[in-house]
UniProtKB/TrEMBL annotation:
InterPro entries per the UniProt record, alphabetical: Pilus_assem_C, Pilus_assem_E-set-like_dom, Usher_TcfC
Annotated region described as Disordered, given as residue ranges: 593-627
The protein's name in its UniProt record: CS1-pili formation C-terminal domain-containing protein
Positions with biased composition (Polar residues): 605-616
Keywords: Signal
Residue intervals of the Pilus assembly protein C-terminal domain: 777-868
Domain TcfC Usher-like barrel as annotated: residue spans: 354-764
Top-level taxon: Bacteria
Stretches assigned to the Pilus assembly protein E-set like domain: 280-345
Amino acid sequence: MMTTAPVATGLAIALALPVVMGGVTASRVPDGFEDLVEGQVEQLDVRLFERSAGVVPVLVDLNTVQLQDPGTVLQALDLDPAARSSLLPALSAPLPRNSHLACRHGNAQAGCGYMDPPEEDTAVAAIYDEGEGAVRLFVARQWLPAPRSAERLHQASAAAEKAFLHQHVINASGGRDQRALAIQGAGALGMSAHGHLAASWNFSQHHGHRSGGGFDMDNAYYRHDLDRRHYLQAGRMDRRNLASPLGGTFGFGMLPLDRFDGLRVGSSQAYINVEAAMQATPLTVLLARDARVDAFDGERLLQTYYLPAGINELDTRSYPFGSYSVTLRIYEAGVLVRGEEAPFDKRGDGADDTLQWFLQAGRRAERGARHLPGEATVMAGLRLPVGHAMAVTAGAVDMESGRYAELRLDLRQRFATQELRAGLSAMRGSEGSRGTRSQISYRRRASWNVHHQRSRDIRCQSSARYDGAGCVDALSASMALPLRGGSLYLGYTRRQAWRADPTPGYAEAVFMPPSLALPGQHAGNVDAQRSRNWQGSFSRIERWKEYSVARRFGLWHQRSDATGGPRHDRGFFFNLSLTRLQRGDRVTSQRRHAMDLRQPGHQRPQMSYSASQTMRRQYDDQSAEVSADLRGDNSERYSVGVGAQLQNHFGHGSATVAFHRQPGRRETGYSATHSAAFALGPSGFYWGEGNGADAGLAVKVDPAQDSELSGVAAELQVAGRRRQRLRLGERRLVALPAYQMHRAELQDASSGDSSGAVRVGVGAGAGAGGAGREVFLAPGRLLSMAVPIEVTYTFIGRAQDPAGLPVSAARILNAPVPATEGNGGFVLDFTRREQVLYLLQGSRLLHCPLQVREQRLAVLMVGTVQCQPLDVAQLPADIRQQERVAQLLGERALIRPGRGAQRGKER
């Protein structure tokens, strides 16, 4: 909840009306409220259309607003010198409030919040929006700031400092017969104005049908940006940077070289000013039943999914860049039922129509090949745009074991309501290997995707060491179509691979059947592995009273031929679920009931029922979630699962445990994940959540001077992510991916139980009152963002003298606030939590202890306060020496005229 000072003041006045407005008529200003008529200074956000000058002091009275420092405001609005000199006189004078033109409750509607710009180039108009705590300015059209022309290349934020940043992600999963643990980390250290060290590592350990693992350093290199279009890297590198803006948009998927130690030089798209949309090959898994799916890159666990039966497209946003194969292990009721392998490609979108190139040389350092000597290798790539919709990419590798070349053609065409993407690549090797890949996707009303892969290499005729593309034929196709308020899905996959009994020392020996052998090849002892799956389903979601009703039905067919014999699975299914979502003040609860009916071929029907409950709690800067799931079916199979998630400034963690029981077997499975990041820079150590933390913001919120004041002080949103609530005195790292433009927005966010209204002060690093700041950081850079705060304490009560009479029309000496009402009532805003109220009634000086009896939001109710006479000498020096107080005391002849004022000026 955002509470600004004007809003808090308005609320305080509303609460105080029964106290202070007794006997007051509308025909005159109530006694003691002369200061409201004369005006009071408020901290307001001054805006000129989309630009903001930040929160500045503004004198506000019943009719006008007047900026206290117009020169600073004009400078902050980034107007040219001619505009500043022309507008300064008008902006220095009081401006009509025009509050009737403000939008009510902050809702932008036609006809509100806007005035026609003045025709005179020296005139200024304003709208005072009390609800938002803002003053909107309107000037002649010739002075309106023109849209900033976007530079072709980004410029790194000059205020960023060199720092060390590191992130980690821990994934674990397992059961009775298998366990997997993967820890991945990445760090960046700024070394110079244009260079940094980068490293990424992983540790994996897995036990089950295949055990292994170990530690591996994926990348460890120094990168130097020669300029904003070219770079030089030296050290250990893999191919992922070649498929990202750091090194271009080279999507090689079949060239054998994955990682090497050496030198790379080439063109970069890191600084290009475009929204670099990351394009990734869709990964689709077809499930006949609810299942857990573990995704691996080789032996590294990438992510664990809990998916319902049907056609599921996996979320691959956290996958690393590059072209590689992803292995999917599918568990039903905790038992591994099958594995699938699919090619995956994630790279930057070729939005820059310029020539791209790279050249690298060194020695091979392939994963899992520590026992093999590294070969000397040279690799080069060239990407040539052909118009705006097509690009041709060529790459070549020269190694001791052979030479390989890959040619790729990419097409991307957008129309008004449709989009077409296509890719075709072919690879050839000097030892006879070859391969092709093709992919096409078309989106209009329906979405169509087709992917085909065919590869042959030397492994098909020999068990010798290989570098080629494998012996695989794979086809996948899918279609999604909105239909009658629901969605129709169709999917098909086919895969064939050929392997033989392992030759001693070569566990991956593969032999080609005669029908697919290359010229001059001979068939071997073949273990042909074939699988074909197709599935169709229709789903629809509707609202019924307080429930969301989801219905889904469809057909499936799965066939696989392997060493263990053919396996067939087919049938139809129907699923019905009811979900009820209940939102509370801080807790959101979701309850789900589902019924699943399946009719496999030549088997009895399977009926299952499930019930789940999820509760999520959001509090200040953290969110917590717990869930429970219970399932059972007519085959005496049962499962119970519990899970929890916690997200705060220490990171994000989740864990799930599931127990499965069926006749003659029991299984327990689990999975857990945790991610976090930290930074060490000139301003100290910072910890935070985030993924992709090779750069970041170091946020530091000022602590409160009042030791009793705590809670949330501000809300920060960066790059469209969820809002992060910052507490008083907090230090936090906001991790950011480097070489990307981010926008940081800071807003007020006082907590409801705070004794004071907390606002973001003037000079906040990201702009206050919703204003933003754009940030572009290179790796190993940390941008410090201090968050100053301003606190307003609102007191409501009534002053009474020793005789029990109201202290009416008394001037407040603590601060320039309105005088007391006729019945002694007061509504006062102080910038600090005052303990004593000092009053001047006529020539009588009084002091009144302020004891809070009740707190409503950020308003302190003190009730009736008993005031006692006070000698001038007992008045605190910091109050007595103020020029305003000295003038009042001199007018009442309580001090010698001018003496206090002079002392105040000397101080």
